Amino acid sequence: MRSFWTEPFLWIHLAGLAALPLTLEFVALGLATGEPLLPIWLELLILAVIGIAPVLWMQLTRPFDIFSLLVVALKPDRLTESQRRLLSLFDRKTNPLLTIMAAGFMVWVLWQIYSIAPLAAGVVPWTVQWHIAGLALAGVGFLASHLFLQVPLSVVQVLFTSEAEWAATQPYPVEKIPENFTVPGFRVKQILPAIAPESSSAESSPEQVD
C-alpha cells in the first residue's frame, strides 16, 4: 500500500461515486414530473448546461479541493505537508482529456435517462403545473451526479501515483491554493481527527534529505 493512501479524504471522495445512482434517480423523477413545457431538446439542453458546464469548467481551471466535506473545507494554511503534496498531484495528474470524456459520458447518460423517464411517472405524485419543479430537481440532481463522477475520477488518477513519484512531489504553496483550487464552503481549522502526527510525513519529505 502506498504511504499516501492513508489520507482519509481520498477515500471519502472516492466513496462519493456510490451516491451517483441516487442523484441520477432524482434526474429521472424530475424528468417524469408533469408534461413538458418546452421542446424536449431544449429542456435537455438546459439540463446539460446546468449539470455539465459548471463542474467541467471547475475541473479544467480550478480543480475541486478534496480537503472539504459537505459545506466546510479545511483552511489552506491548516493543510499538512502531505495534504499539500496531494494537491500538487491533483494539479499535475488530472488529465483534461479524461475530464472532458467524463462530461461527454454524462451527456449520454442524460439522454438514456430521458428515454426511460416515463417509467418513473407512476411514482411521481405531482401534477402538470409542477413540471418546472421537476426540471429544477433534475437540474440539481444532474449537477450533483456530474460532480460525484468527476471528483472520484480525479482521485483515482492520483491513487495510481507511484511511491517514487510521491516521494519526489513538492507540497503545493499555501498562498496559491485559493487561487488555483476551488475551496468550497466555510473554511475551518479541522474536519476529521488527525490520524498521524505531521512530523511523520515531514520526515519522509524530500525537503528533509540533506
UniProtKB/TrEMBL annotation:
Keywords from the UniProt entry: Membrane, Transmembrane, Transmembrane helix
InterPro entries named in the record: LCTMP-like (IPR049610)
Regions crossing the membrane: 9-32, 38-57, 97-116, 128-149
UniProt KW tRNA-binding keyword: no
This protein's name: Low-complexity tail membrane protein
Organism (species): Coleofasciculus chthonoplastes PCC 7420
